[in-house]
TrEMBL record:
Name of the protein this chain belongs to: 7-cyano-7-deazaguanine synthase
PANTHER family named among the record's database cross-references: 7-CYANO-7-DEAZAGUANINE SYNTHASE (PTHR42914)
NCBIfam families: 7-cyano-7-deazaguanine synthase QueC
Binding site for Zn(2+): 183, 191, 194, 197
Keywords in alphabetical order: ATP-binding, Ligase, Metal-binding, Nucleotide-binding, Queuosine biosynthesis, Zinc
Record-stated family: Belongs to the QueC family.
Pathway: Purine metabolism; 7-cyano-7-deazaguanine biosynthesis
Binding site for ATP: 8-18
Known cofactor(s): Zn(2+)
Catalytic activity: 7-carboxy-7-carbaguanine + NH4(+) + 2 ATP = 7-cyano-7-carbaguanine + 2 AMP + 2 diphosphate + 2 H(+)
Alphabetized InterPro entries for the sequence: QueC (IPR018317), Rossmann-like_a/b/a_fold (IPR014729)
Protein's gene: queC
Any Pfam family matching the protein: QueC
């Protein structure tokens, strides 16, 4: 059976990608990264729950050196997570995170002979992170395949979808969205104010759907 390595944060987008891979006939291998992010425990919990639902093999890798690099509010508690809207890339951007993840994913995919690597990046309705663009992914696929024996295609089925489209597609596929997490700040009750919460709530609102996870009461 063909295999797909799915980079899974425990969030809505990467979870949808894993469901899509399974629908397309792949045996799913879920890959999760810990990098000392604020909501690490919650993300890990969601990852394992979704993989259990999908019957996916799980691979968990610690990349705590990302926190040592710093420069972002996900790993540096001295920085405040942005709660206001702006056209600037927020300080939740973790420098070259997807480049690091894809490099490691390439090795894991070769280990398990996965012909596809799924990553839930989106450039149409996101925070403007530079490592979430189609151009970046195309270049990443080239460099990781140049350095390996076993070749893989990097698949980004959500790249041009809005958050509303993502919610609609997830609901159509029966994705257990109640077991996904998007909040950058809290791991028990979502703050509802960070970029990731705002984008998630916007997607559910535009899709005329109800998000089942708990949010803090917004003033």
């Amino acid at each position: 059976m063909k295999k797909a390595l799915c980079i899974m944060s425990g969030g809505m987008d990467s979870t949808l990608c894993a469901y899509m891979a399974k629908k397309e006939g792949y045996e799913v291998v879920g890959l999760h990264f810990n990098y000392s992010q604020r909501t690490q425990d919650k993300e890990k919990e969601c990852f394992y729950k979704i993989c259990e639902i999908l019957g996916a093999k799980t691979v968990e890798i610690d990349t705590n050196f990302i926190a040592q690099i710093g420069g972002n509010s996900l790993t540096d508690r001295d920085l405040e997570i942005r709660k206001t809207m702006s056209d600037e890339v927020p300080n939740t951007y973790v420098p070259f995170r997807n480049g690091i993840f894809l490099s490691i994913a390439a090795a894991v995919a070769e280990r398990y002979e996965c012909e596809a690597i799924y990553i839930g990046v989106t450039q149409a309705d996101g925070s403007g992170y530079p490592d979430c663009t189609a151009e970046f992914i195309k270049a990443a696929q080239k460099f990781i395949n140049l350095g390996r024996v076993y070749q893989s295609t990097v698949k980004t089925p959500l790249i041009n979808l809005s958050k509303a489209d993502i919610v609609k597609e997830a609901l159509n596929l029966g994705v257990a969205l109640e077991y996904t997490w998007s909040c950058y700040e809290n791991g028990v009750v979502a703050c509802g104010k960070c970029d990731s919460c705002r984008l998630r709530l916007k997607g559910f609102s535009k899709a005329n759907a109800v998000d089942k996870i708990a949010y803090a009461k917004l003033s």
